[in-house]
Amino acid sequence: MAKDLVRYFARAEGRVQGVGFRFFVQQTALQLGLCGWVRNMDDGSVTMEVQGTHEAVDVLWQEIWKGNGFIRVGSLETEKRESIFDAQGFDIRY
Question: pTM of this prediction?
Answer without folding.
Answer: 0.94
